[in-house]
Amino acid sequence: MAYAIREKIMQNLVTTLEGITTGNGYNNTINAVYRWEQTGNSLVDVPVIELNIAGEDTENSPNPYTTATLSVMIDLFVRHDKSNFSGSTDAYLITFLADITKALMTDNTRGGNAIDTVITGNSPFDIVDGQGFTGLTVIIDILYRYKIYDITQI
After folding, report:
1. What pLDDT digit, counting tens, does each position of 101-140 carry?
2. Dihedral angle at the C-alpha atoms of 112, 114, 118, 124, nearest 10 degrees?
3. Which residue did the predictor score with more confidence, 46 or 43?
4. Strand order, beta sheet including 134-147
5. Other CB atoms within 10 Å distance of the CB of residue 56
6. For residue range 55-84, what is the model confidence (pLDDT) as tens digits?
7. DSSP per residue over 78-93, as a string?
8. 148: which residues sit within 8 A by CB, 6+ positions away?
9. Radius of gyration of the chain, Cα coordinates, nearest whole angstrom
10. Cα–Cα distance between 104 and 111 in angstroms, integer?
11. pTM for this structure?
């Protein structure tokens, strides 16, 4: 099956973020990376990441290509256990932000399927004291091209 370039990019994001483990030189280990599911994803085995497409802008240029900017929200869900990290929850989230940034920027071309990946922002979830989990959202824009007549070709 020939996948659309956009799908190849999303698959690369999953693989890239699944590589965040202490064994690979990161501060933390991500237990699962999910793509958005209408029925929801399990948050039992945190820390987990869920990928959500936030939208896409396109322009039919330069001929014969469409240039697209795909916006993706990377939602990280964690539980701050003081026995594993004694600092503040904010400091704990920063260690994950550093890991996600490092992983994403290791290959900003998403396996050769994109022109560039840019981190455009991040923010913590709205948090209520005593809530069972916390997390943050990292927003990225991925610039890529595909043939106007075939979205599976670069």
Report:
1. 999 999 999 999 999 999 999 999 867 777 778 999 999 9
2. -90
3. 46
4. 32-35, 48-59, 65-78, 134-147, 116-124
5. 14
6. 999 999 999 999 999 999 999 999 988 888
7. E---TTT--S-HHHHH
8. 60, 63, 64, 65, 66
9. 17
10. 11
11. 0.94
Q: 34, 49 in Cβ contact below 8 A?
A: yes
- The token duo for 80 is 């701050």
- Using CA atoms, how far residue 142 sits from 33, 115, 116, 128, 129, in Å, is 18, 8, 6, 32, 35
Task: Tell me if 136 sits within 8 A of 76, measured CB to CB.
Answer: yes
110 within 8 A of 9, measured Cβ to Cβ: yes
Residue from 44, 46, 66, 45 nearest 57 by CA: 66
CA distances from 14 to 34, 53, 60, 83, 130 (A): 7, 13, 28, 29, 30
Rounded Cα gap, residues 30 and 69, in angstroms: 27
Q: Tell me how crowded residue 85 is: count the other CB atoms within 10 A of its CB.
A: 15
Structure tokens given for 145: 């091209």
Q: How far is CA 92 from CA 41, 55, 84, in A?
A: 23, 29, 10
What six digits make up the tokens of 43?
């948050």
